[in-house]
């Protein structure tokens, strides 16, 4: 794509800007900020990736992965900042998910050990894990808040913390993974996945693009369920003390 | 002479710098029925949660059957000191599903026969066993709630304002049920009520609480002779 054609794509920014201005939606400033930020951020990432790919050294590759995990943790921890040790719980989850998925991909030679594969796939896996952990924490904090009495009831009848929070924990895990599962049910019917579309546009064979997309789809399924389960089982014990008392409902 | 089953020594409980219970001491005799009354926020429910182990006092000592509450296993304590909470929460499912919670928690099964016995014990028709628990009336839910706590066969039963949201007819029904359970099962019962009349009607002993303190401990008869101004103003306000 030439600079001229890239410049022409700004028409897709002018259309919403014109509509926003005409209808006095008062979102013009946000559209402009989003546009400028995406240009700067993506070009920085592009140049960094170019450097890493050219250097072709695994140290840079894993540093990029570490950077992705740091950014994802920083973003997700805002939701559960009142939960004790939330940061390391997120880091541990993302590292586990990344290790497991890359372990399978690289261990079985499904993908080559090159930055061109490791970095984008890690980005998709950790990005998905971040969204899942936010979805889980959102639902879980609501469940605990709204069903505090039910948790207290089970404790009062002689239940352990795990028994007391079982229903809320399972509901939250299920609710947070549903979007991923539902999305995968309609994949290809409603819209072509972004990565697959990108490969086809770049001239790849559609069947090969489908095969690679399937890999990603299955990978994200593992990521979704593993992230919710891990975060859930790491978070719930912090709500109780050693005397099996619910120490807070204000998450 | 009856032995105290519960002993409280200088109990205080703070929540974020607010003193909820302030230096409470006293004893409850085995097999007695004691009412706790007092305005909202006087610390009655908090005291019950301390006794059931849902909370821990910041200072002071609680003894249950002469054993410090701190030495109990939390689960053992909660089975020994059963509590029926103010809101009769029914989990999704049938009356049987609700009654069997305590046995499920122990990986045991509650027999249908035992469940029906429990319903009869709390004056409910056993035919409601497989009914959706959420369709029950407020009074029925509260009775199921009592039966559910009795599954653990507690020695001490705490009733936390269980009649406050009920109509007068249901209140009377629960009142007579509690008296009946007390005499039939020989339980030590502590119950929180807002009504002096209800307290006099059901209990041998009455504790009046205000601002986290116990301002009066007396029998129904003694209460009528009291000269404590705080107690008199509470009774006066309560009767208006």
Automatic annotation (TrEMBL), chain A:
It is a multi-pass membrane protein. One of its GO terms (cellular component) is plasma membrane. It is found in: Membrane. It comes from the Bacteria. The chain crosses the membrane at residues 6-24, 31-53, 59-76, 88-111, 117-137, 214-236. Keywords: Membrane, Transmembrane, Transmembrane helix. Its main location: membrane. Pfam families: UPF0014. Belongs to the UPF0014 family. This is Putative ABC transport system permease protein. It comes from Pelagirhabdus alkalitolerans.
From TrEMBL, chain B:
It comes from Pelagirhabdus alkalitolerans. It holds the Pfam family ABC_tran. This is Phosphate ABC transporter ATP-binding protein, PhoT family. GO terms for molecular function: ATP binding; ATP hydrolysis activity. Keywords: ATP-binding, Nucleotide-binding, Transport. Residues 6-236 form the ABC transporter domain. Transmembrane segments: none annotated.
